[in-house]
Each structure stands twice: as structure tokens, then as C-alpha cells.
């Protein structure tokens, strides 16, 4: 099963429990995993790149990666090592892109060019699709959706705040979710992850 090494015994037990819970389907535990590992991963990326915004994006891509590959992580023996290996891959991509931007592509060795396969969308791309989908919503629908998903209000609280029925709130949220999921298409399974990140920065 998943193991974590190199941190205090108490933290090992706590983080191990959260990882186990998340891999079993508890998305609330994922928030605690995110909060625990984010600073460590950010520091690793920033020490190598000295670029704060790029480092933040790289770490978000690492967390997006594990969200999308939850099923595969059941076979990972060392979760922390997996995270930092993913971060190092992000760092390598960062430096490779910088090489491509500063050198004539015709003079580069093949190993600098990377894979010719189309990469999966990164967090920044998916967040942009999400924000564009929000812009498609009516003002009322968007406000109700954000109150629910980004600010964490219950449907009853939203109904009282907007002076409307809870059924209207539910209908508006359901309609908004359909539009956003349709826009995300095959990536709609990452919407809870995007919302989790959004809710941590909106307040």
C-alpha cells in the first residue's frame, strides 16, 4: 500500500490516513493532502526555477496529475516520492521550454524537443476553460453557483441570501454544472479539483 517516509511519526500516521481515505473515495481528505504537500513541492520548484508564478503552476499540475490518476496510485509504494518525481518532471519541462524559447529550434538536439505526442491539458488550461464557462452563465446563475461551490454556502443559506426558494437554487446550480461540465468535456472529472482550488483563493 502507500507509504510515506522522511517525516515525523505523528505526521506519517495522519498523512497516511488522509492518503488512504482519499484513495478510498474521500475527496475531503484530498484537501488536507494538498495543504500538507503544497509548501514542500512549491519550495522544490522555486529553488530550481526562481519563478514564483511558474512554480505555483507546476505544483498545481502535480496535484492535477494525481487527481486524474487516483486509481493508479493504489499501486504506488511511496506517495511522497511519486509527488516529488512529478514535480521534477514539471521542472524539467520548464527548463526545456526555456531552451526552446531562447535557441533556434533547428539547431537543437532531438533530446531537447521532447515528445511529439499531444500533452494533456494542464491546470492553467483547464482553469481557463472553467472561467470561460462561468462567463457563459447568466449573472444570477453564476452568482448562485459561486456562492455554493466557491464560497461553500448551503442551498438554504443561498436561498435566504437571495430571497428565493431552495428549489430555485438547486435548479440554478444543476444548470450551471451542466454547462461547465459540457465545456470541460472529457476533463469534466477534474471539476471538483478546480473548485477546491478556487474555493481556497476566493475568500
Query: Tell me about the biggest sheet?
Result: none
Give the count of helical stretches.
9
Helix and strand element order: HHHHHHHHH
Low-confidence stretches: 1-10, 103-119
The CATH architecture of the largest domain comes to Orthogonal Bundle
CATH domain class name of the largest domain:
Mainly Alpha
CATH superfamily of the largest domain: RNA polymerase sigma factor, region 2, helix turn helix motif
List the domain count as a whole number: 2
Overall shape: it is globular
Distance between the termini: 37 Å
Helix content: 55-70%
Class by helix and strand content?
mainly alpha
Architecture blueprint of SSEs:
Elements: H1 9-23, H2 27-49, H3 52-68, H4 79-102, H5 123-136, H6 139-149, H7 155-162, H8 166-184, H9 191-201
Question: Can you tell me about this structure?
Answer:
The chain is mainly alpha-helical and 203 residues long. It folds into two domains: 9-112, Rna Polymerase Sigma Factor, Chain: A (Orthogonal Bundle), CATH 1.10.1740.10; 123-201, Arc Repressor Mutant, subunit A (Orthogonal Bundle). Helices cover 70% and strands 0% of the residues. It is built from nine helices and no strands. The protein has helices at residues 9-23, 27-49, 52-68, 79-102, 123-136, 139-149, 155-162, 166-184, 191-201. α2 runs antiparallel to α3, α2 crosses α4 and α7 (155-162) crosses α8 (166-184). The longest helix has 24 residues, at 79-102. It is globular, with a radius of gyration of 20 Å. The chain starts with 8 loop residues before the first helix and ends with a helix. Residues 1-10 and 103-119 have low confidence and may be disordered.
Amino acid at each position: 500500500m502507500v507509504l510515506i517516509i522522511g517525516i515525523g511519526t505523528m505526521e506519517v500516521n495522519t498523512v497516511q490516513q488522509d492518503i488512504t481515505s482519499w484513495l478510498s473515495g474521500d475527496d475531503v481528505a484530498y484537501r488536507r493532502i494538498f495543504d500538507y504537500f503544497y509548501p514542500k513541492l512549491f519550495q522544490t520548484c522555486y529553488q530550481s526555477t526562481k519563478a514564483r508564478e511558474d512554480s505555483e503552476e507546476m505544483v498545481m499540475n502535480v496535484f492535477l496529475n494525481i487527481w486524474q490518476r487516483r486509481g493508479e496510485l493504489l499501486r504506488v509504494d511511496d506517495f511522497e516520492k511519486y509527488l516529488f518525481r512529478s514535480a521534477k518532471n514539471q521542472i524539467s519541462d520548464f527548463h526545456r521550454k526555456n531552451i526552446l524559447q531562447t535557441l533556434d529550434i533547428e539547431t537543437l538536439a532531438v533530446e531537447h524537443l521532447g515528445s511529439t505526442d499531444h500533452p494533456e491539458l494542464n491546470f492553467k488550461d483547464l482553469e481557463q476553460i472553467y472561467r470561460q464557462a462561468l462567463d457563459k452563465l447568466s449573472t444570477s446563475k453564476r452568482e448562485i453557483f459561486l456562492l455554493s461551490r466557491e464560497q461553500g454556502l448551503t442551498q438554504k443559506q443561498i436561498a435566504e441570501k437571495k430571497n428565493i426558494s431552495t428549489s430555485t437554487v438547486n435548479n440554478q446550480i444543476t444548470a450551471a454544472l451542466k454547462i461547465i461540465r459540457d465545456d470541460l468535456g472529457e476533463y469534466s472529472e477534474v471539476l471538483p479539483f478546480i473548485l477546491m482550488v478556487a474555493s481556497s483563493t476566493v475568500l
